[in-house]
Task: inverse folding
């Protein structure tokens, strides 16, 4: 038998179902792979081999007993560490939650357990999913398996790298402005951001609530379809969850693409697009043409405002969502003895200089507890976004920033509605460039943000989008192709991605890790 | 009563009402006062990462009912916003409330004073909106503890915030407004309005319009908090008006000269005290809560709720006057005792066929007993139908009032029916022949009285009646009088 | 119209270090002198970029709070179990028998 960790999830599932493979064997193979490779890559923040094997053995027992233990029975899966897992540390890559153990499972985790999936561990991410390189994680470094001096993308860096390096057949990520699609593109795997509300956010630690969406990462569109079918669906515990039935994505995949109308987004081929990325994407469009798709050109005229809109809305919501991390009810708290001593010292210093104003303005112990806790618990990128959002929502600025951004957001959505009157899906690049060297943008946040140029619009508009491997740069780094569709067109996106993968072999390449 | 002061008091009230739901506003923890600390919380109301709010249908419904009963407009579109501030009893770092598009606005509540101290008027309601409550911070100041303890049981309780226009011009008007509001909420069964348990909380905004040679001048507005009873509200406002007037005389500060001040009522010392507040704390950074979706209320639904409101206090007062011919004052007292009391009265008035007598009994005997025994109306052991039998007996002259009170006491204290009470007190109807026999006997024994009455001295009859009652306590003077006169006539 | 005015005001006045300090108190973040310096520079860069939104006329556009708009989502008023006290407090940084503990809230 070839290396198990090389197979697709669909293939592994059929072996499990046919009794040619046990979940224990399979889980062991992946745990061994993690043992061998993860020191180099850093996909996982934590694994619990004993626990995983226990679940695998239970699945095997149930299958042997003739039960049919669910659509993912026995398949290992990796979870991004911003998904709550009951009684198990859920950190969001932050010092703030380093020791936080939620007393509940995220709805998605619940569904995966019910489907019989075997959680392998929790994967690394940018702190609170804020970033595009996984460099802002406070708890670990993650490298791009194709070139370990490069970033893996982010924020779902661990979720993408564990697929690319064969450490898990399936993984779950979250996407607020491209956080599934961009690392998928940088690592050469498939990543899908579903329609807003398609997958329950209950138990996903919020970054920007109106943009966050959980989605699958896998090697193939078919594997992603398998996973989406399990995690999608209405959840009464999430008010924004869509009350619509879940299609049988995998059976839709097989239908031919005949007559598919694809729109090439004019604005996505402008200034800033790397030549190698452009040529790979243009070549992919030709592939679709050969598959019988009708190619036209479409415009999303407000695309140029997407980054500005996004970097108002996301930080505003984030500043509010992260207000709860204050060291009172859970999470990190600064050392109170040091705090009181420092305040005492500052007070006596100010009394000595008779600076009454400064003395008056000195924080109370409680306010200082908040401020010091948050200063120590959060990293630079998170603080930056909290500051940006707090500023934009503060008195006198709300209308100019947040309200304005919500209006432009509607214009961006209207662009999509317009485009989807003409075409079924739109096509373009995922990122302007392939993965960049670690550390190269860490001190230039704006440059980092501009990398989200093609991905944030889908989050703002709430539409689904998928990233598929479509080529490699001369330096050997993967390039991603993005397809976006109207709300609830995940079936169409997966079908289009599936046929592309039947025609191409980009997804079959493996990084050399040894 | 206002004209004797060189200023006019202007008061607006903000009332927070806890809604009577089974569960909290955004999670399904029990909504109940008084559990042991931190036993009525869940990941949602603790604000744990990843948790999401889902709005309680009943809470929205109760808010809608109240808003409509307060004559508010209900806009078609409403949404919820986050109000951000840091406080240890606010676990999410924001309160889910309503900012620019509240669920209701522009209503009014009519108030009047039976004593006529002010003309009845409509106090405007600026808005009523639905929001969540915070938890409780406890600090043992006397013990000198360095820590505060936080209990999150109350966190997420549904509150309706009702904001009045600054249209009340005396502490009496303010108190009357609160009394009427509480009564309305009680009739609607949307809140138990228990101020001690915090299910009704009042903040007051107050300032003065002072007459000066240059015209009227408004003094800075002060918000008064921590008032734990209607009486406290009345006293705090009286105190604050005087304090503001002296401050005006000393400092002469006008509205806009200084930032709005918050003061707390100290019930022990009967004074208001300044509360320290940092300037930045008022930047709440409201924005629409992205975890919740807006609510659309169609006009038809508003109409439906309006139709199903039932009879509200103001209407009921009028109806009691027209249908039962009782005086405005009596109608007021009856309705103000709450819906169950009014309901009892109506039943009693109907079955006894004598509304005025029913009203008298309710306001005297029944109300006194309720007060003495600290009973709620539904704890009162006598049904209106039983009480009605007593009233009818009185009306027919079968028993007199003092006897009737004894029967009433027997019924309430022993839980007896009318018949049982009559029996156990040994009250029997004296039959006509026995009555006549007794009468005949007495007239024979007291010939002088017969002569006196015949001579036109009717009051002489009193002696006979007294004697009759002495010999047979069950004799009812009303019943005895006429046959006695008839017999004398025949002599 | 009003928002345009606020906009121009914001544009003329870039974020000062004092303003960043004020925001850091609002956001309950303790920033060092160095942090303040870097933060002021970086926030100005980002805010400067974001200001391009002002160019777009949006007078008759309704704000859009969610990509997919839904209305009237409610839950029934039916009780579910709460957490036992000890489990509720299990992640608390500091607690006593039944409460979370914080430095005194008085005088704040
Ligand atoms: Mg309020
Ligand atoms: Zn709860």
Result:
């Amino acid at each position: 038998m070839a290396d198990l960790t090389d197979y697709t999830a669909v293939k592994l599932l059929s072996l499990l179902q046919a009794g040619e493979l046990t979940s224990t064997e399979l889980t062991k193979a992946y745990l061994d792979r993690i043992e061998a490779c993860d020191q180099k890559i850093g996909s996982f923040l934590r694994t619990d081999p004993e626990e995983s094997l226990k679940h695998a053995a239970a699945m095997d027992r149930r299958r042997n007993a003739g039960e049919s233990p669910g659509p993912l029975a026995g398949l290992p899966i990796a979870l991004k560490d911003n998904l709550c897992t009951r009684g198990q540390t859920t950190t969001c890559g932050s010092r703030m939650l380093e020791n936080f153990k939620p007393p509940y499972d995220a709805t998605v985790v619940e569904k995966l357990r019910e489907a019989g999936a075997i959680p392998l561990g929790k994967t690394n991410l940018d702190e609170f999913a804020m970033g595009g390189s996984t460099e802002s994680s406070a708890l670990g470094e993650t490298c791009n398996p194709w070139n370990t001096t490069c970033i893996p993308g982010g924020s779902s860096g661990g979720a993408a790298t564990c697929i690319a390096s064969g450490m898990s057949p399936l993984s779950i990520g979250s996407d607020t402005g491209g956080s599934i699609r961009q690392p998928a593109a940088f690592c050469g795997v498939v990543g899908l951001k579903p329609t807003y509300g398609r997958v329950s956010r209950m138990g996903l630690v919020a970054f920007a609530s109106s943009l966050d969406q959980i989605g699958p990462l896998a090697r193939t569109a078919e594997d992603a379809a398998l996973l989406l079918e399990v995690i999608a669906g209405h959840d009464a515990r999430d008010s924004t969850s869509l009350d619509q039935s879940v299609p049988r994505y995998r059976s839709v995949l097989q239908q031919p693409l005949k007559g598919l109308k694809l729109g090439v987004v004019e604005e996505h081929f402008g200034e800033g697009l790397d030549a190698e990325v452009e040529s790979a994407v243009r070549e992919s469009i030709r592939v679709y043409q050969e598959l019988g798709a009708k190619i036209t050109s479409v415009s999303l005229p407000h695309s140029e405002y997407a980054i500005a809109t996004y970097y108002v809305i996301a930080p505003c919501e984030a500043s509010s969502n992260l207000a709860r991390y204050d060291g009172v009810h859970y999470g990190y708290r600064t050392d109170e003895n040091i705090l009181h001593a420092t305040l005492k010292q500052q007070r006596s210093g100010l009394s000595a200089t008779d600076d009454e104003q400064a003395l008056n303005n000195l924080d109370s112990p409680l306010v200082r507890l908040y401020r010091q806790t948050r200063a120590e618990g959060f990293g630079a990128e998170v603080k930056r976004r909290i500051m940006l959002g707090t500023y934009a929502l503060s008195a006198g600025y709300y209308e100019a920033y947040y309200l304005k951004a919500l209006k432009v957001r509607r214009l961006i959505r209207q662009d999509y509605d317009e485009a989807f009157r003409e075409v079924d899906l739109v096509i373009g690049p995922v990122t302007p460039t392939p993965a960049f060297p670690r550390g190269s943008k860490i001190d230039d946040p704006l440059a980092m943000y501009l990398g989200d140029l093609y991905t944030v619009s889908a989050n703002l508009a709430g539409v689904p989008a998928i990233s598929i491997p479509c080529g490699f740069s001369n330096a050997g780094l993967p390039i991603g192709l993005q397809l976006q569709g109207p709300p609830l067109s995940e079936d169409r996106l997966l079908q289009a991605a599936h046929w592309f993968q039947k025609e191409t072999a980009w997804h079959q390449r493996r990084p050399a890790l040894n | 009563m206002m004209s004797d002061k060189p200023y006019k008091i202007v008061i607006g009230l903000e009332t927070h009402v806890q809604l009577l739901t089974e569960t909290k506003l955004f999670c399904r923890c029990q909504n109940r006062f008084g559990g042991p600390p931190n036993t009525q919380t869940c990941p949602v109301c603790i604000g744990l990462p990843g948790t999401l709010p889902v709005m309680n249908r009943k809470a929205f419904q109760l808010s809608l009912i109240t808003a409509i009963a307060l004559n508010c407009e209900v806009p078609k579109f409403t949404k919820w916003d986050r109000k951000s501030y840091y406080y240890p009893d606010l676990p999410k770092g924001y309160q889910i409330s309503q900012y620019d598009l509240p669920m209701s606005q522009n209503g009014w509540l009519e108030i009047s004073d039976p004593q006529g101290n002010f003309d009845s008027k409509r106090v405007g309601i600026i808005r009523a909106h639905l929001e969540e409550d915070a938890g409780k911070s406890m600090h043992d100041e006397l013990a000198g503890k360095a820590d505060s303890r936080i209990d999150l049981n109350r966190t997420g309780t549904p509150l309706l915030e009702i904001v009045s226009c600054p249209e009340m011009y005396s502490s009496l008007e303010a108190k009357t407004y609160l009394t009427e509001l509480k009564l309305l909420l009680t009739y609607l069964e949307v809140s138990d309005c228990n101020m001690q348990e915090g299910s009704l909380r009042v903040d007051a905004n107050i300032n003065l319009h002072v007459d000066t040679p240059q015209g009227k001048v408004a003094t800075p507005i002060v918000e008064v908090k921590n008032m734990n009873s209607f009486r406290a509200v009345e006293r705090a406002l009286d105190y604050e008006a005087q304090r503001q007037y002296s401050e005006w005389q000393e400092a002469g500060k006008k509205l806009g000269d200084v930032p709005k001040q918050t003061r707390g009522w100290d019930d022990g010392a009967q004074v208001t005290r300044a509360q320290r507040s940092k300037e930045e704390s008022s930047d709440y950074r409201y924005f629409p809560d992205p975890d919740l979706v807006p609510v659309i209320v169609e006009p038809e639904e508003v109409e439906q709720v309006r139709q199903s409101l039932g009879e509200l206090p103001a209407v009921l007062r009028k109806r009691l006057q027209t249908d039962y011919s009782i005086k405005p004052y009596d109608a007021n007292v009856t309705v103000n005792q709450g819906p169950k009391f009014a309901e009892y009265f109506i039943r009693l008035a109907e079955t006894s066929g004598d509304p005025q007598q029913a009203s008298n009994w309710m306001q005297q005997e029944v109300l006194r007993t309720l007060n003495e025994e600290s009973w709620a109306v539904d704890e009162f052991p006598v049904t209106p139908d039983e009480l009605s039998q007593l009233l009818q007996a009185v009306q027919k002259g079968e028993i007199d009032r003092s006897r009737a009170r004894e029967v009433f006491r027997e019924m309430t204290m022993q839980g007896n029916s009318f018949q049982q009470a009559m029996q156990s007190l040994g009250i029997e109807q004296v039959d006509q022949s026995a009555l006549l026999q007794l009468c005949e006997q007495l007239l024979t024994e007291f010939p002088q009285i017969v002569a006196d009455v015949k001579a036109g001295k009717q009051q002489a009859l009193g002696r006979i009646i007294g004697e009759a009652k002495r010999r047979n306590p069950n004799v009812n003077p009303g019943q005895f009088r006429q046959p006695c006169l008839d017999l004398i006539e025949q002599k | 119209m009003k928002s345009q005015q606020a906009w121009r005001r914001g544009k003329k006045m870039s974020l000062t270090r004092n303003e960043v300090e004020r925001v850091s108190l609002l956001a309950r973040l303790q920033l060092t002198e160095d942090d303040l310096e870097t933060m002021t520079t970086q926030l100005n860069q980002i805010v400067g970029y974001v200001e391009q939104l002002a160019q777009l006329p949006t007078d008759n556009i309704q704000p859009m709070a969610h990509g997919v708009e839904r209305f009237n989502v409610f839950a029934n008023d039916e009780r579910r179990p709460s957490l036992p006290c000890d489990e509720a407090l299990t992640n608390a940084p500091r607690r006593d028998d039944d409460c979370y503990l914080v430095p005194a809230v008085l005088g704040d």
Notes: The two ends of chain B are 66 Å apart (CA to CA). Residues 7-300 of chain B form one domain. The CA atoms of residues 202 and 325 of chain B lie 36 Å apart. Chain B touches chain C through 51 residues (CB under 8 Å).
